[in-house]
Write a structure and sequence with these properties.
This protein has 311 residues and is α/β, with parallel strands linked by helices. It has helices spanning 12-24, 37-50, 87-108, 121-132, 145-159, 192-198, 205-216, 218-226, 231-245, 290-309; strands at residues 4-8, 29-33, 58-61, 72-75, 113-116, 139-141, 166-167, 170-171, 179-180, 186-187, 190-191, 250-261, 264-276, 279-283. 45% of the residues lie in helices and 21% in strands. It is globular, with a radius of gyration of 19 Å.
Length: 311
Amino acid sequence: MAATVGVVGVGLVGSAAAYAIALSGIAGRIVLVDHNAALAIAQAEDISHAVPFASSTQVEAGGYDRLSGAEVVIIAAGVNQKPGETRLDLLARNAAVFADVLAEVRRIAPDAILLIATNPVDVMTEITTRLSGLPPGRVIGSGTVLDTARFRSLLGQHLGIAPQSVHAYVLGEHGDSEVLAWSNPRAGSVAIRDFAAQIGAAITDEVRARIDDGVRRAAYRIIAGKGATNYGIGAGLMRITRAILRDEGAVLSVSGRAANVCGITDVALSIPRVVGRAGITAELMPDLDSVEAAALFRSARLLKDTQNALP
């Protein structure tokens, strides 16, 4: 039976994810749900018109009842920050939105894996884990999957190789405290520094700084130019969904509640994780140098403090 994927919240991010999933053909059916029913209907119709060029996926809009049988439900719903509103106030309002959304999703599709896209995604992943009552492995945040793709892309450009041949990860928060793990990137099976030396493209401090800025500041530049980021994260959500639906056992830098990271317990953040039909089935901690380990600790501490401050 063809898989069903639900998308709750079909603004720029939710619609981009639905579009990427529809063109990939990994799902037989996509259901779009939004508090603005007219928007959901329009997005479904527009995406449906693209499908004949690439796949046979059915795209439809409807209420939560249409999510019955969904294997994956992407949640990209949320509210925007008001002038003068604190981050915690915004989080509290988004938590209230999620409480309503999750009650409906869990009622209609109790077996679905929940894939969280709403920012700040790590904290929203923890909120979802608390509110849903699901095992942590069945609540997955998009985390640093996009930051990792940016890191691999820029390394690939510097080395003149495909980003798919670069194995590197961004860890911790999807945000300013994220950690580029420079200790362990590889090109194929070769340590990145050794490969760079072999081809005469040394990774100097200047190159590292340029790539770090390219990863860390990417969202700010894109938002300054077009108002939002949506295509990259849309494709990232498709990639996570594919790993689940095809039971790939793919290693992806997704967010989820970790039992212990650098001594910080029960905190949602990104580390490499094995993702398949059961959700997150294993966690992999890369070897880090002392500077990276300290940075990951600070990132985990920041997220834990934010999570603890929530009602």
